[in-house]
């Protein structure tokens, strides 16, 4: 939320006297005084979110909470685009606690669970709230960064997530169906969730259907007008945007780099460690296509082309999700982000001073 004490021409057009405007803004500041300040950085795949988050963390004394549904898993590094982990810990305590630092900035919600286990949005809310509390206790600003919009909205707006325990019998039945059949079933049972979900991610399709079939109600989604939705935090929403053609080039370049870094070896290692091909495919995108290649279902060229096209389609679904949030300030670079932060009078003065 943005609060600006300046007397603007917009206010003058409404013929509001300056004293009244100041009083209104003082009331707003008082309302937000007891809320935690948070920066949220969203964007599509390959948009540069992580780099921006680290720069802002260094500039404004922040720590970063990942909002990526796959980066919570250990060993899934190259395929998920995790920031590289520092080899040298800052202190002995950091070493003993096995904290995750990248470029000397602490990151949370990375390498949390084994990929054989299921990590839900409810789990994410729990751990992310603990991280926010810990960061604020250190006197720092939490910076949430990622592309899993559902996780971010669930946390920021404290969306009610149905507590539906895994139903092994139902999952076995759903698991026997094809991805296309599951998607068609979800489209009928919960059309809105079907619009935003990764239609090629079998695990997510099964979980969405599990919730719908158990609760007899759609999966909760954020209202179209996010300004009507309240939050327990003071949030500055930043979104990185690129022209589609430029984004496609960035996706292709990043994909080639990841393949050269050993992404196929990473998936092979995970499988050798006991993660089944079925489980790997459930993670979607890189892991689904490479698993199919390793199973010799497709050629390497088919894998690369199919993966590229899937990432592009996924990025478009991400934008569909983010567009419903009218609070996002779409930016192009670090300078744009600084300008937005400078407008926030409820952020600490030390944090918003620019050179």
Shape: globular
CATH superfamily: P-loop containing nucleotide triphosphate hydrolases
H/E series: HHEHEHEEHEHHHHHEHHHHHEHH
Structural class, from helix and strand content?
Answer: alpha/beta
Overall number of structural domains: 1
Distance N to C terminus: 24 Å
Radius of gyration: 22 Å
CATH architecture: 3-Layer(aba) Sandwich
Q: What is the top-level CATH class?
A: Alpha Beta
Average pLDDT taken over every residue: 85
State the CATH topology: Rossmann fold
Strand content: 5-15%
Helix coverage percent: 40-55%
Word description of this protein:
With 355 residues, this protein is α/β, with parallel strands linked by helices. The chain has helices at 9-13, 18-32, 49-60, 92-97, 121-137, 149-156, 168-175, 179-189, 191-196, 202-215, 244-261, 263-272, 277-282, 285-294, 300-323, 334-342, 349-352; strands at 36-43, 62-66, 100-102, 105-108, 141-145, 233-240, 329-331. The chain has a 7-stranded mixed β-sheet with strand order 3-4-2-5-1-6-7, with helices on both faces. The chain is globular, with a radius of gyration of 22 Å.
